[in-house]
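Thread: quick sanity check before group meeting

JM: Hey all, I'm pulling together slides for Thursday and realized we never actually wrote out the predicted structure for the chain we discussed last week. Dropping the sequence here so it's in one place. If anyone has concerns about the input, flag it before I start.
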Amino acid sequence: MNQSRIREASAHDDAVVLELMTEYMAWALATFEQTYGFAMGMEVQQTADALGKFRRPSGMIGLAEVDGAPAGVAALRVQDDGAAEIKRMFVRPEHRGAHLGSEMLDWLLDLCRDDLRAPVVRLDSNRFMRDAHRLYESRGFVERSPYEGSEIPAELQHLWRFYELRLD
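JM (edit): ok, ran it. Output follows.
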């Protein structure tokens, strides 16, 4: 029956969160290289140390499950100016097309608004991620210039789209 739920991941979920984030990075880096003809040079394997920036009080990790099995992940971190930044949003291929990404994004936006009280939400997305762009735009995100605190190197920012949604 495909029952989905999205919940905040705890430290007990670290292994599955890291597995999902590593799957995301492997897909994104391979697609980047295939699209642009050169490697980005980032590490595919995600580590537990990397999760710290997405832990409360300055962040949060969401875990999407379908019928109790891990199906997607997304992370938030609060930037120095109080804006929330969405990172590593990923839905496993076998669950795409079932609106799990939409559910996850709506869950994140509610959390940003109601729990984190963030005035604005930002994110970056590579230009080849067109389905993600449609989703973000459907929720009111608008394209903007690269923002302070983005992890995208300046020399690669022309290959990304940067988005923002005002919540205040």
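AS: nice. The first strand starts at residue 4 and ends at 8. The mean pLDDT is 94.
JM: adding both to the slides.
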